[in-house]
Amino acid sequence: MNPIFSALQTSVFEVMSRLANEHRAVNLGQGFPDDPGPEDVRRKAADAVMGGWNQYPPMMGLPELRKATATHFKHWQGLDLDPDAEVMVTSGATEAIAGALMALVSPGDEVVLFEPMYDAYVPLVRRAGGIPKFVTLKPPHFGLSEEALAQAFSPKTRVVLFNNPLNPTATIFSDADLDLLADFCVRHDAVAICDEVWEHVVFDGHRHRPLMNRPGMRERTVKISSAGKIFSLTGWKVGMVMAAPELMRVLAKAHQYITFTTPPNLQAAVAYGLGKEDGYFEGMRADFQRSRDRFAKGLTELGYSVLPSKGTYFLNVDIAPLGESDDVAWCQRLVTGNGVAAIPVSAFYAEGAVRNVVRFCFAKHDATLDSALERLEAAR
Ligand code: GLN
């Protein structure tokens, strides 16, 4: 058995969802919305299933989805992408990340990672033979610094795996951060794999800026997007990958031997959805922002110390003011004793663990949030 895999724990999201079910807890752990997603997009998928779109689609994705992806990201992010050479559809963003690492990392290559980070990153980097080099981001800003990047980059750096907006911190990297990172990538001739799945879930009027648009990055960026996050349909697992033709050719080789394709009925529905008018995307953001504000206000009134949330489905609470210094133990008590599931943020660190921050998913109906708040009153 591969020792990397036998040493792995079950994903914290799976563990917490299981505990939430066992203890009939309000599940604010794993990030998925209560909202059922746009009815017209779901209807398109159902119609496509019944209309016979059920055999293998082209390996690179349905032409209509590749085109819709290029048009969508031109409109929203000013990217000029050739749908035939620079867009590919994968079975979720996680497949895209795994495939990109398999395609681009050779044994002994160094991969720069920013912690806290999504739990899949390190095992995938290691399995590809990569050596992780961590940049540790610290609360409350979780921003980059030249010193930290200089320590992590070396002549062996091949890839940077960068998540913006950042899960779990709910922060967004500044323009200065993006320019700094772009400069390091260019100087070290590194490829940036950009997990930008939260790009549409940003608040307070923010507009997402992709790393691919920074100077020198167009040819060295793999941009990864997720229909699951764009349409609140997290189980669909439809990812969109964008990269210059030279990179895309090797990414496609990985994809063809991992999943080969992605369900065509879902692809047809996503192609339709990406063309929805601006109001849909703005409305979605406004709804999530309202839920964020409701939950943040409730927590603050209960005396919790809430960290700012600029995007994603999440907001974080600093438990140090409660006299707590073990986020795992606190979350354990919260789910078993108080009936609320949350995620300890230390699960997202490999080296410089922060032990006093807990992540809650607020992408829920008001009644779910209110019920969680009632239970959280007893947990202070
Ligand atoms: N992206 C989701 C989160 O951060 C989890 C996805 C999963 O369960 N693997 O909560």
UniProtKB/TrEMBL annotation:
Its cofactor is pyridoxal 5'-phosphate. GO terms for molecular function: transaminase activity. InterPro entries: Aminotransferase_I/II_large, Kynurenine-oxoglutarate_AT, PyrdxlP-dep_Trfase, PyrdxlP-dep_Trfase_major, PyrdxlP-dep_Trfase_small. Residues 26-376 form the Aminotransferase class I/classII large domain. Keywords: Aminotransferase, Pyridoxal phosphate, Transferase. It comes from the Bacteria. Pfam families: Aminotran_1_2. SUPFAM superfamilies: PLP-dependent transferases (SSF53383). This is Aminotransferase.
